[in-house]
Every structure is written in C-alpha cells, then in structure tokens.
Amino acid sequence: MQSPSPSSFKVNYIEDYSPPVWLTPKAHIRFDLDTENTIVRTEYEVCLNSDQNGKSLPPLFLNGEGLEFLSLRVDGAICDPGAYQISKEGLTLSDPPRNQFQLVVENKISPKRNTGLEGLYQSNSMLCTQNEPEGFRKITYSVDRPDNMIRFSVSLVGDKEYFPILLSNGNHIETKEIHGGKQEVIWEDPFPKPTYLFAIVAGDLAEIRSTYTTLSGREIVLKIFVDKGNQDKTEFAMYSLKEAMRWDEETFGLEYDLDLYMIVAVDDFNMGAMENKGLNLFNSKLVLADKKSATDETFESILGVVAHEYFHNYTGNRVTLRNWFNLTLKEGLTVFRDQWFTEDKTDPAVKRIKDVTLLMDHQFPEDAGPMSHPIVPKSYVEMNNFYTVTVYEKGAEVIRMLSVILGREGFKKGLKNYLNRYDGQGVTYEEFIHSMEEANQLELPMFRNWYDRKGTPNIEVSEDWNENTGTYSLEFTDTDKTNLPLLFPIPIALFDADGTVLKEELFIAKGFKSEINWDGFLQKPIASVFRNFSAPVKVKFDRSREDIVFLAKQEKDGFSRFFALQEVIKQCFESSLEGKEITKMPEVLQVIENTLSDRKNLAKDYLSYLLSFPSIGNLAESLQVFDYEIIEKNRNLWLATIADRFVTNFQEIYEENRISLPTQTRTEIGKRRLQNTSLYYLFHSKNSLNRLGGLALQKQRDAKHMSEELSIVRLLSEMNHELKAESFAMFYEKWKSEPLVLDYWFAAQVGFGTEALETVRRLKDHEKFNWSNPNRVRSLIGSFARNPLSFHKADGSGYRFLGESIEKLNSINPQIAANLTKLFQNAWLQTGQRPTIAAEVLENLLKIPQLSREVTEIVTTIRKGWGL
Ligand code: TRP
Ligand code: ZN
After folding, report:
1. What cofactor does this one take (predicted)?
2. Distance 309 CA to ligand 1 centre (A)
3. Widest CA span in the chain
4. Helix H segments across 555-665?
5. Which residue from 118, 271, 313 has its CB within 8 A of the most atoms of ligand 1, so it is best to mutate?
6. DSSP assignments along 519-531, one per residue
7. Residues of the chain with CATH 2.60.40.1840
8. What is the pairing mode between strands 279-283 and 273-274?
9. Can you tell me the distance from the alpha carbon of 741 to that of 731, in angstroms, rounded to the nearest whole number?
C-alpha cells in the first residue's frame, strides 16, 4: 500500500529504521487480574543499546496506549512528575540516571472495556492477550518493537474461583495460595523474545493433556485449554500438533525447545491464531472440531494452522524480525512450511490447487488494486493493516521459488544455516537470502527484487519451431521493463503427441528476456511451463487451444493438468461472453469427458477439483470482466450444458460416492467432495431439478458429517431452491446452540445470489448476531461483501450497507472494520454508478469524528489509488 499521510497519523518508513537506543533485556511483570481493573506492575532492567561514551544520555521512551498511569520508580526511588512526560503515545523519561538501571512502572487497564481484542481483553469469562504487532503497549509501558529482546518472568495474581487456570510463556515455576481466595502463579520463559510474543491467559478452562516424545527421546507435555464442555472436540487439533512436531524433526531436524506446549481456544479473536512462545492462542474455530459439527475444510484448516503456529517456534520466535516491514520473513516462510507440511500429509496436487486458487482469487486482485504493496512494504501507518494475502501468500510463493531453485535438500541446508547463524536475533529478509546463498554456494542477486517490486508480473511466453533443423525454443518476456528485473524458476516439460515426456528441465529466467532452446526433434513438442505454478506471475502463452486441451488430458503434473483444464474452460467461457454459441465450443465438453473416462485412475479428491467449474469471482478475475450478472448468467448456461451432456456420469458418480464414512481420510473426504460436485451439476441440469429437492433434504437430515449436511444447505441456497427456507430452518433448529456451526449458517444465507442485501439486513438483527464477535461479523457481513452479485448492486445499496457496518465496527473493533473496508478495493472496476457511490461511501467514512487509524489508512489508500 502507498503511504498516505492521513490527518494526524504518523507514517513509518522503512528507510527511517534505526536500532533502538534503549533496550530492556529483562522484565518481570506482575498482574493483579480483574476484568474491570487489572493492575500491571512491570520491572525492567534497562540498558543503553550502544556505548554513548561521555555524551549525555538520550531520553528513554516507552510506548503506552490507553493506559492509566499509576507510578514510576527508577532504581527504587519514586520519580516526581517533573522527571517524565506522559502523552497519548507513551512515557518519556528525560534524564535516565546512567546507561544501565532499573525501572518499575505501574498502570491500570480494563480488559472488559477492550473490545478491539488487542492487548489484554476479555472473551466470555476468560482473560487473554493479543500482542502482535503492537498490542503490548496496551498492557504496560514498554520498548514495544521486535528488535528489543526480553527475558520475561511473570507473576499472575487472581481469584481462584474465576481464574483457576493462570498461564504464561515458558515454564511454570510455582503456584502459591494467597489470602482472600486468591492464588499467585509464576512463569518464566528462558528464551529472550520480543514483546509481541508475550502472552497470558486466565480463566476457568478445561485442560486436555497429552505427551509427545521427540526423536532424541525428550518428553514434551502438550496441553489444549478450552471452555468446559468442549473437551471432546480437541482430538484433531492434538493430532495435528503431534504430526507437525514430528514433521519438523524429520524434515528440518528441528526439535521443540521447551518441556511444555500449550494451545488455548478463544472465542473472540481477530485472526486465525498466534504463535506466542509455548502458549499459542487460537481462534476457537481452528481448534474445536468433530465430524458432526466441522466441515472437511475446517479440519484441513486446523491441520494447517496448528502446524503453522508450531513452525513459528523456529521461523519467527527463535529467529525473529528486526522490524515490522520484514513481516514476510516469518510469515511467508512459515506459510511455505505449513503448505509443504500439508502437501506431505494430504495430496500435494490438491493442496497446491487450493493454495494457488487462493492466491489468484485474493492476492492477484489486491496486487492489481489500490492497496498493492511489495511483500516488504515500504511504509505503514497501522501495522495491523499489513497482515495481507500479499505478505503471507505471495511471500510464501517467493520462498517456494527458492526451494525450486535450490531443490528441497538445498533449501533445507539453507534454512538450517539461517537458524544457526541468527538464533536469538531479529533479522531481515537479506539475512535469510544470504543464508540460502551461503549454504548452497551460489548467488541470487536479482532474486531480492521480489521483496521490493509490487504488482503481479506479466510474463509473455512465445514458442518457436524450426521444422528444418528440429529446433524448438521458448522465450520468456517480463512486459514491465521499467520495473525491477527478477529471477524466477521455470520447470518445463516437453511432450510428444502421445503424451510421452521428452524433456524435463528446470530453467532459471533472469531479467526481462530469457530464452531456452533444444534441438533434435522430429515434430514440434508440446511445452508445459511454470509447472506446479513455480512463480507468482500471470502467464500469457500465445498458443493453440489444441495444445492446452492436450495438457488438460496428458500433463503428469497434477496441478498443471488442473490449470490447463481450467484454462480451456476460461478461454471458451470468454468466447461465450463475446456471444459465441456454447455448442460451437466442443473443447470444454471434450476435456470433461476425458476426465470422466479417466476417473478410475484419479484420486477422488483430485478428481473433484478437475471436475469443478471456476467460481464467479475466479472467472471475473481471470478474464478481467467485472460484470458479475453476465458472468453468472453465462456460467449457469455452461453448467446446464455440461450437466445435461453428462447427466448419467454424474448420477453414477453420485451413486458411487453416496455413502461415506465420517472420518478424515483422503478417500472419505474425496467421496464427500464428489457427492457435492455431482449434485452441483445435477442441480443445474434442467431435467432433474425438481426430483432432487426432496432427496437433498433427506440427505441433509441423514448426514453423518458436517460437510455433507452443509453442502446441501449451500447448494439449495445457491440454487435459490424452493426448499431453501426449509433447509435453513432445519439447520438452525439443530445447531442454534453451537456458535461455530451458526457461523456457517449465517454465511450460507448471504453468500449467494442477487438478493442477499435484504437477508443481511434482517440477520444483523437476529438474536444470535453479535457485532463484538469477529467470527460472527466475518460470517455475516464478510460473506455478504464477498458475494459479488449482491455487494456490487447497481444502485450502490450493497456499498452503503457495508459503509454502515464499517462505521458501527469502527468504534468496537477497528481491525475488523479495516479488513471489511478493504473489500471496496475493486469497486472502481465496476460499471455504471458503482464507482461514484463507492467513492462517496468512503468519503463519508472519513467524516466520522473518531475514525480509527486502521480504517483511516485503508480508506485513504483506496481513495488515493483511485486518484481521489
Ligand atoms: N502471527 C499470527 C500468525 O500468522 C498472525 C497475527 C497477527 C494475529 N496479528 C494477529 C493473530 C492478531 C491474531 C490476532 O500466525
Ligand atoms: Zn504466522
């Protein structure tokens, strides 16, 4: 994102970085816990970062926001008010006594009034913290930046009845009974860490305990804490944790470094989960699951996110960040590690399809719009706004390119080198790339430009075939020659007409134009390039449709076969938008027929992806056509054509997969997906629609797994079927007391169709809707705004509704409000009055008197990107 300088909010620039003047290498914090009034007493060892020989000592600044200051002591003596100043941003001690001293500061906070869910806050009856990136300053005064590494000890004092469980990072030292029904629990973390990794939890929670023995034979105690009553929904999370621990040992030789690992499930949580040292905090939707109440997608998210947070223990915690601009150093790398883990544990092609689809549907638009930024942003106003798909997902693609260039073994060597060299330090992406180069004894200078260049590169591919010499060549051109030159890997396969692989080669493209050629061919080979999506670029390969159809049938790389098939569909779809008759485009039916006849050779899960038709959003983004109603109309035509043509096959597939066991194995997950895919087509076939409704409701009633149950609800909703209301009512009756399942219910009602505005207006007043719970807001308001047919209504009513919601959330939870504001990013591409109305809604947001830093930055950035 560009750095606007909105009103009075300060902009942080990467080139202004300088190391901290003062450090606080040790801290002891005592919390007197109370939901209304918590007293925090923090004792620091303060020291000067570098020798200031003879010169007078610089002032000490401690960040602090929204704190009620109580007292300050320096070296034991209480400071008089003239010795320090307190502002909205923090506390300044003008004349520190010497280059090393002790400081004790006391302040008061109110967890209950903290609805922004950053700092110390209350969720149900639990107190917990969220400090990344800059939440610690909402708990106590501190040098709140990731290059200030602290050894923490913590004393938690609280009422035994309300807070029998008191947790913090590291090792439990002791528990003491104290007068008045209270207890004191002491924790100590032997590893120095920045403030953002600090955490505490207090509550009356159920504990699920297990153990894990490392490859070297150490026993680690694993604990998951949940609200009482949810104990039987933690098995899969515990399993995921153990799998992740084993995988990191086997893959990278990384063994967990404390004797205790804790996960706490929290109902009110701004994001997915948080990697606090030894004490991960999780959005409860990413911990709690059983087959009755969680979908296959939720199970897989749990596997991935539990692993992600666990992997941060090395990539993030042991080696951390020098500054927030380098967020992708830990996030891109850790996402890549969790992707790799899930590829190993499930089906690599399927996982890759999901990850690339996410990138194309969400990151490509972000990078093409007003909020485009490099994976290392050059400036920010509110760091919370930079936890983006670009920093995370594109960042992971950049790391993946290294693993393709260096090979997995070379990558492992490089990562080990990085972790050894920089253990206990805060570093930047430069140290990471340097470690990779050093361990592999090569240099990748242009590769660094991936960290500074924003926007998705457009790569044009052209082929040349010389019949006389038998020479075949490929040329790759980066079309934006004014931008930074890049280096990227291109795995290539050349096929003959029978599908035999003639050549497999890893080509490394450097700069704006690169060429590779081969000779000795009798016939023109067919090339597959960027196999397995080897670089986060848009590829334009000017070649015959015939060649793409060939790859959709013959490519051995599972991802690239899927991608070619989708390409066939998209090209034909585009022609249909331009008025060409569907019946005149046999290629789509041909590749689907081929997939259907090949289906016994394909894993069920993978097959379901090959058979899926691109979503409205995916089509709009790929074809850069943003008239969603026209896309929907054509898409329905295509679906009906395919369904009618293959109705018997889809009936067969449905019958073959109708009965699945409610377990999380590839086969059973694949069966459930195939039930869903085949029903989806059958519902679009003109012939079978009416008969199917009754069958669907019966299936919803009999479902043994949430994936089966919910897919019916969604299907009836998407089809706007006459039984839709009955389906929703039945689902509600069954699940009204399960909050995580109700989130699916809210989302499914507004996620499809052109009439969701009325529904969202009604449901926001539903007794189960709650503006303070981020999961609920995302499921209702977020799903509405991600439904293009309703959000982008021609009269602007969708935009106005989102504007009202943002205003409401601005005062409750600015982070959630800002994330919703980002959904305006592509309104400018729309036709008619839409852009004007979107601009007006954003302008009105700027008039809100207490508009948060979070929302202000997003609104300003979007408006600026639109040239306003
Ligand atoms: N570091 C977390 C992760 O990706 C993400 C995170 C950042 C977060 N800020 C947060 C999580 C606020 C919850 C709340 O693993
Ligand atoms: Zn992360």
Report:
1. Zn(2+)
2. 9
3. 95
4. 558-577, 586-597, 604-610, 616-623, 628-645, 647-657
5. 271
6. ---SS--EEE-ST
7. 458-535
8. antiparallel
9. 9
Q: Which CATH class is domain 18-203?
A: mainly beta
d(CA 322, CA 395): 17
**Dist. CA 531–CA 538, nearest whole Å:** 13
CATH 2.60.40.1730 placement within the chain: 18-203
Cβ atoms of 22 and 59 within 8 Å: the answer is no
* pLDDT score of 768 more than 80: yes
CB-based contact 379:13 (threshold 8 Å): yes
pLDDT > 90 fraction of the chain, expressed in percent and rounded = 97
Topology of domain 322-451 in CATH is Neutral Protease; domain 2 (1.10.390)
Q: How far is CA 287 from CA 209, 312, 360, in A?
A: 14, 17, 27
pLDDT score of 691: 76
pLDDT tens-digit profile of 726-742?
999 999 999 999 999 99
Q: What is the mean pLDDT of residues 644-656?
A: 96
Q: How confident is residue 3, by pLDDT bands cut at 50, 70 and 90?
A: very low
Amino acid at 282: F
- Residue 798, token pair as written in the block: 């969708």
Residue 418: CA count within 13 A, CB half-sphere: 31
Bridge partners (DSSP) listed for residue 182: 159, 178
The whole-model pTM stands at 0.98
Per the listing, tokens 């106005």 go with: 800
Residues 6+ apart with CB under 8 A from 615: 361
Mean pLDDT of 465-491: 98
Atom of ligand 1 nearest to the CA of 308: 15
Cα 334 to ligand 2 centroid, rounded to whole Å = 6
Lining ligand 1 with CB less than 6 A are 130, 132, 270-271, 273-275, 308-309, 331, 387
421-449 CB burial, b ≥16 within 10 A, e <16: ebeeebbbbebbbbbbbebbeeebeebbe
Bridge partners, 379 (sequence order): 13
Q: Tens of pLDDT along 82-135?
A: 999 999 999 999 999 999 999 999 999 999 999 999 999 999 999 999 999 999
For residue 104, what are the β-bridge partners?
43, 73
Alpha-carbon span 795 to 837, nearest angstrom: 8
Q: Alpha-carbon distance 460 to 510, whole Å?
A: 14
How far away, in angstroms, is 330 Cα from ligand 2 center? 7
Q: Which residue has the tokens 């007794």?
A: 767
By the 8 A CB rule, do 484 and 453 touch?
yes
Distance of CA 226 to the CA centre of its chain: 23
Q: Is 309 a catalytic residue?
A: yes
CA distance 500 to 495: 5
From CA 792, how far away is CA 841, in angstroms rounded?
Answer: 13
CATH 1.10.390.10 range(s) for the chain read 322-451
Q: Does pLDDT of 1 surpass 70? A: no
Compute, in angstroms, the gap from residue 286 CA to the centroid of ligand 1: 13
Q: Which atom of ligand 1 is nearest to the CA of 132?
A: 9
Digit-coded pLDDT (tens) for 178-236: 999 999 999 999 999 999 999 999 999 999 999 999 999 999 999 999 999 999 999 99
Write the CB contacts of 796 (distance below 8 Å, at least 6 apart in sequence). Answer: 833, 834, 837, 838, 841
What DSSP assignment string belongs to 814-848?
Answer: HHHHHHHHGGGTTGGG--TTHHHHHHHHHHHHHT-
Q: CA torsion 376→379→380→383, rounded to 10°? A: 30
Q: For 233-290, what is each residue's pLDDT tens digit?
A: 999 999 999 999 999 999 999 999 999 999 999 999 999 999 999 999 999 999 999 9
| Annotated catalytic residue within 65, 134, 243, 309 | 309
Q: What is the CATH number of domain 458-535?
A: 2.60.40.1840
Sequence-ordered list of residues with C-beta below 8 angstroms from that of 852, at least 6 positions apart, any chain? 810, 814, 817, 818
Dump strand ranges (E) for 591-652. Answer: none
